[in-house]
Amino acid sequence: MADVITSVSNPAKQFLSHKVSHFTESVIREMTRQAMLYGAVNLAQGFPDFAAPAEIKAAARAAIESDVNQYAITWGAKSLRHAIARQMGVWQGIEVDPEKNVTVCCGSTEAMISTLLAVCNAGDEVVIFEPFYENYGPDSVLSGAKSKFVKLRPPVSEGGEWTFDEKELRAAFDKNTKAVIVNTPNNPTGKVFTRAELELIRDLCVEFDVLAITDEIYEHILYDGTTHISMASLEGMRERTVTINGMSKTYSVTGWRVGWAVAPEKITNAIRKVHDFLTVGAPAPLQEAGAVALSLPAEYYARLAEGYRVRRDHLIPALERAGFTCFLPRGAYYVMTDISAFGFEDDVAFTKYLVKEIGVAAVPGSSFYRDARDGARQVRFAFCKKRETLNAAAEKLGRLSRG
Ligand SMILES: Cc1ncc(COP(=O)(O)O)c(C=O)c1O
After folding, report:
1. How far is the CA of 251 from the centre of ligand 1 (A)?
2. Do residues 172 and 205 make contact, with C-beta atoms less than 8 angstroms apart?
3. Could you read off the pLDDT of 172-190 as tens digits, one per residue?
4. Which residues, including other chains, have CB under 8 Å from residue 10's CB and lie 6 or more apart?
5. pLDDT tens-digit series, residues 146-155
6. Which residues surround ligand 1 with Cβ inside 6 Å?
7. Which residue intervals of 189-297 are DSSP H helices?
8. What angle is formed at CA 19 by the lines to CA 14 and CA 24, rounded to 5 degrees?
């Protein structure tokens, strides 16, 4: 009997999907585990280590106390959908019908995969700017689509911007292109796409009949006078854009898992079906707290951005003193750096050394590229951390020596 239980029936089968066999573990989340293992300061994963706003925590407690403890409407609690629609009107001048255009999901992560599953067929192509937030690659695979990458090139001079080549972007679009994913403000580069750049992408979407899926989760984290422009606010894009956003970054609640997709009615209907079968719904009491969060006054957002500006301007000089070349982010809460000065073989060897011997966890640049060689000289640091955490990291980074 024991033989039967322990024997592998058909080794070729292995019970695993071909899709999953191509996935690697999330490098970002692995770095968090390594930070815990070595007791290192975690500047790897993008979660704040400080408190969420008191009002929204009180709202979550109140919702649980008043027994908002059962399934919400599968596509989202009415109060939150109405708040989302109102906010998109206020911030971007986009008219949204909360009954027809909004799907609340378990984080923007689920909003993205539900959207891709709802719109992609096998053989469709999805254009992705790289370096890219690492979920987009596996998301495309899960949805049966093929990813096509367009390079964002680092600034060539101090204080310059990440740019892309118009011809390279155009070459990525063809008759099989179903969607382009645009993440602005961008993780990991901190790039905030300009109106001119978005219009260029818009023109290609119209010409090739392509959907834009925009990840705008860092919408309110902007520096140096930059402004966030939603793709859906551009003329001709309302009917061909899915706007993805969530509570994680704006309200410092990455563990609550509340996000949403805003899309034209037909696409919303498809996203809602996928979402329903995937997760049924996002946490009901936290959606109620979300409605309160989205009603915070405008000063809240100004303070949020200024708090991160101060953190950015605190960490970057420490990184530069330690020997990193920093690419100044204009939004989001990460800084991409160049590690050439340290003489390591590659980014992975460097981040291993950094977490184990220096005591700071960061993310190897290669995890943001399809071809690891493109990120071999880059490392990303997150600065969504308390002053003490950044100080502790700065002190440790001071022990690094250049190669
Ligand atoms: C660009 C981007 N999109 C989505 C997410 C995940 O968002 P959520 O917590 O809403 O799933 C992250 C988290 O780091 C991110 O950087």
Report:
1. 13
2. no
3. 999 999 999 999 999 999 9
4. none
5. 999 999 999 9
6. 46, 107-109, 133, 183, 187, 215, 217, 246, 248, 254, 259
7. 195-208, 265-279, 284-293
8. 90
